[in-house]
Each structure stands twice: as structure tokens, then as C-alpha cells.
């Protein structure tokens, strides 16, 4: 599968807001169920190539996290610098940039919200490369 982004609609074969049961026979998922920890039935379905995770609530795909590949406008967004991402997509982030430091390497990750295209972008270090992008079915403006 090629992880091509159509904002608010799909990432590769996975259609946002579709039922995860549509994909169970075709993909070998590693599944982690978080339903006992949350008010809403929720699970995390991961696949290996390209490496990504589907966040599922009430059996519907709500978000797709991409770690190796996410193609948009003909280019892979993973690995880009944030300035290159902004230039390529033509979009600007909203709100404050979150800074999370949960690894022992001394380099925090910066999280940018691009609500106009439904993406949360994780960057290693202030001027580092994009490590993860989470595509969401949420945030679409009316």
C-alpha cells in the first residue's frame, strides 16, 4: 500500500470514519484494546509496511498515524523540516506548538496542529525532521 493522504478522507487504503471490520481480512494487524481504560470503546491497530497505526473508536477509524511514509501533493511529508512542510502544503499551523520530552535523548518533540488539513505533525527537536504525522477525521471546517 502507498500511504497517499486525502485530507479528512483517507490515508492509502484506509478511509477515515469507515468500519475497521472492512480491513480485518486484508491486513495483519497488531491490535491493542484500550476500551477498559476509556469511556468509549477504543483500540490501536498497527501495520508494518508502511509503518502506521490506526486509532479506532466504536469500530470506526478516527485517526491514522504515519511513521515512514505519507504522500501529499506528490511528496513524502515524513522526514521533511517543518518549514519545508509548510511551504509544500501551503498551510499554517494553529495555536501553540506543544513541546513534549519523553525520550532520554535530550531532544524534545514539537507538535504542530494543521487543522485546515486535519494533521498533527511531530518534529524531533526545534529544527529537526518530521517523525510522525497523524491524519484525523476531525477539525474539518464547515
Describe the protein's topology.
Elements: E1 5-6, E2 10-11, E3 14-15, E4 30-33, E5 42-47, E6 52-57, E7 60-66, E8 71-72, E9 75-76, H1 82-89, E10 94-100, E11 109-114, E12 119-124, E13 130-136
Antiparallel strand pairs: 1-2, 2-3, 4-5, 5-6, 6-7, 7-13, 8-9, 10-11, 11-12, 12-13
Structural description of this entry:
There is one protein chain. The chain is mainly beta and 142 residues long. 6% of the residues lie in helices and 42% in strands. It has one helix at residues 82-89; strands spanning 5-6, 10-11, 14-15, 30-33, 42-47, 52-57, 60-66, 71-72, 75-76, 94-100, 109-114, 119-124, 130-136. The strands form 3 sheets. The chain has an 8-stranded antiparallel sheet, with no helix packed on it. A hairpin with a 4-residue loop joins strand 11 (109-114) and strand 12. It is globular.
List key phrases describing it:
mainly beta; 142 residues; 42% strand
Number of DSSP E strands? 13
Q: Regions with pLDDT < 50 over 5+ consecutive residues?
A: none
The major beta sheet can be summarized as: 8 strands, antiparallel
Protein structure class: mainly beta
Radius of gyration: 15 Å
| Tally of helical runs | 1
Short description:
Helices cover 6% and strands 42% of the residues. It is mainly beta.
